């Protein structure tokens, strides 16, 4: 249902909406909190006699006293007209046509006001196919293309959540609220604009966005917007893996991964992004994957809070480790070495996962290296540790091993060995790697010796992991 306080449905079916304009003196947004790049773009558009507003997360976050991640701009200038105003400006997007303006190192996204599809449009025809050339909606109600330009008011109503539809007007520094966003900001709630189920069907990624904003802002999802989440997760299965990959990073690398993960699982959405992880988490007999995933997410959040770097390679290594290991264990019974099974299971899990979230090779390759090094890290005699420690991915692999230990895998002694190996001097290192110093207990069970008749098939773990890299 539309927010009743701001829209009135007349008998004739027309909608009258009541806009709230909050003058500068009555709100807290100050130009000093807006980036120079965004201000330049706003003023340039204004000086060229266009309307120009800051909108979206920038306005929302500033009103909450948070530092905005980025600034989005909405204008009545068409994309080509925006392009005319700036030396460095690219038009992007098919589903939405947007202008990307480069100001110094910043890229500012400028979107022309757009209108939502009319409710009657979504009725489509009997085939479920549809409608006009600029709004395309498929049989599930999903918007395939969305390039109908409109007024500021149209633009407000087609946005996802009320708290994301607040506009800061560069012309008089006022705030414009068509949808009740300010009241929802005060109440701490994420509420879809319009009919929630219809809006989720138009774009199922809005379900992920609802969860993301609730987790990030510590808001609740309004009950009407929350109810469909439990039943519409399957709609995510039709979203492109490239878009879901981008969303997965926003969900898990935005600093609130733990809460986000818990909410996604609560609504049954997580399994549509990471089906193999979800299946592994559901295994009652092993609590490792759950602990490993939550610990990895806790670490990621802590690193982001401390301003440290994080990489999707490490995140995905943790998310998929349990599923990969379970598969490897099943395969190993089919007369494969541990290393071969890990390799093969890694291939299979990655190939399956990229059909859901298209992890690019530049991250899947280092992720595989982190996994492969887990086996290498069990080899702590002779020259091997000296080579392993120089591997470019050693640090990540070592951190990953610590995480596995924290999650309950019995490798603490091995972790302690590597922790010590990195800090002692050369002589002591030599002492540590001499075969007589023995394997630390808990570094993994000794593999049973295989009979000679099978020896042609047997590859030592170390050879296999080398061959794999
Ligand atoms: P963030 O802090 O993550 O940048 P944001 O709200 O700015 O949050 P963006 O993805 O940058 O999110 O989108 C900018 C704005 O565009 C949103 O605030 C919202 O108004 C609108 N928007 C983005 N995605 C959608 C969508 N799928 N459906 C409707 N409106 C959307
Ligand atoms: Mg934004």
Shape: elongated
The CATH topology of the largest domain is what? cca-adding enzyme, domain 2
CATH architecture of the largest domain: Orthogonal Bundle
CATH class of the largest domain: Mainly Alpha
Report the C-alpha radius of gyration, rounded.
Answer: 27 Å
The distinct ligands, each listed once, are: adenosine-5'-triphosphate, magnesium ion
Q: Can you offer a commentary on this structure?
A:
- The chain has three domains: 1-114 and 149-187, Beta Polymerase, domain 2; 122-146, no CATH class; 275-468, cca-adding enzyme, domain 2 (Orthogonal Bundle).
- The N and C termini lie far apart (56 Å).
- Strand 11 (166-169) and strand 12 form a beta hairpin.
- The protein has helices at 36-47, 57-63, 79-85, 119-122, 152-157, 181-187, 196-202, 205-217, 223-226, 241-252, 257-266, 270-273, 275-281, 288-305, 312-332, 338-353, 361-376, 384-388, 394-406, 412-421, 426-433, 461-468, and strands spanning 7-9, 15-17, 20-22, 52-55, 72-75, 89-92, 98-103, 106-112, 135-137, 143-146, 166-169, 175-177, 189-190, 220-221.
- It is 46% helix and 11% strand.
- Helix 8 (205-217) runs parallel beside helix 10, helix 15 (312-332) crosses helix 17 and helix 16 (338-353) runs parallel beside helix 22 (461-468).
- The strands form four sheets. An eight-stranded mixed beta sheet has the order 3-12-11-4-5-8-7-6. The chain has a two-stranded antiparallel sheet with strand order 1-2. It has a two-stranded antiparallel ribbon with strand order 9-10.
- The chain is an alpha+beta fold.
- The longest helix is centred in the last third of the chain and has 21 residues, at 312-332.
- The structure holds adenosine-5'-triphosphate (ATP) and magnesium ion.
- Adenosine-5'-triphosphate (ATP) binds next to helix 8.
């Amino acid at each position: 249902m539309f927010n009743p306080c701001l829209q009135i449905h007349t008998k004739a079916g027309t909608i009258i909406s009541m806009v709230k304009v909050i003058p500068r003196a009555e709100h807290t947004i100050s130009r000093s909190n807006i980036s120079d790049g965004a201000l330049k773009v706003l003023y340039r558009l204004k000086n060229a006699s266009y309307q120009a507003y800051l909108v979206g997360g920038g306005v929302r976050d500033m009103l909450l006293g948070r530092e905005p991640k980025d600034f989005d701009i909405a204008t009545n200038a068409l994309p080509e007209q925006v392009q005319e105003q700036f030396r460095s400006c690219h038009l992007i997007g098919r589903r939405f046509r947007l202008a990307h303006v480069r100001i110094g190192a910043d890229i500012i996204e400028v979107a022309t006001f757009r209108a939502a599809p009319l409710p009657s449009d979504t009725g489509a025809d009997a085939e479920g196919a549809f409608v006009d050339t600029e709004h395309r909606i498929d049989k599930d109600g999903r918007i395939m293309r969305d390039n109908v330009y409109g007024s500021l008011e149209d633009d407000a109503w087609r946005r996802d959540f009320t708290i994301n539809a607040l506009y800061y007007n560069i012309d008089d520094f006022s705030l414009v609220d068509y949808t009740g966003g300010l009241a929802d900001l005060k109440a701490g709630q994420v509420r879809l604009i319009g009919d929630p189920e219809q809006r989720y069907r138009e774009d199922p990624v809005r379900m992920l966005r609802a969860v993301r904003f609730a987790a990030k802002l510590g808001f609740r999802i309004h009950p009407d917007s929350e109810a469909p989440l439990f039943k519409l997760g399957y709609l995510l299965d039709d979203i492109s893996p490239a878009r879901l990959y981008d969303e997965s990073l926003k969900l898990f690398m935005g600093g609130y991964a733990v809460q986000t993960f818990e909410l996604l699982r609560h609504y049954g959405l997580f399994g549509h992004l990471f089906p193999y992880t979800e299946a592994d988490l559901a295994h009652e007999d092993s609590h490792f994957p759950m602990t490993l995933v939550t610990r990895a997410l806790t670490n990621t959040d802590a690193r982001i809070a401390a301003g440290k770097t994080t990489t999707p390679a490490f995140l995905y290594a943790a998310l998929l480790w349990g599923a990969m290991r379970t598969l490897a264990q099943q395969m190993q019974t089919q007369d494969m070495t541990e290393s071969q099974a890990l390799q093969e299971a890694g291939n299979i899990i990655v190939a399956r996962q990229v059909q859901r979230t298209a992890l690019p090779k530049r991250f899947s390759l280092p992720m595989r290296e982190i996994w492969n090094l887990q086996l290498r890290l069990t080899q702590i005699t002779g020259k091997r540790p000296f080579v392993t420690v120089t591997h470019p991915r050693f640090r990540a692999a070592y951190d990953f091993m610590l995480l596995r230990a924290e999650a309950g895998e019995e490798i603490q002694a091995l972790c302690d060995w590597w922790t010590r190996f990195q800090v002692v001097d050369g002589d002591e290192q030599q002492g540590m790697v001499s075969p007589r110093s023995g394997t630390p207990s808990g570094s993994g069970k000794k593999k049973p010796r295989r009979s000679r008749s099978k020896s042609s098939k047997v590859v030592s773990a170390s050879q296999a992991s080398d061959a794999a890299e």
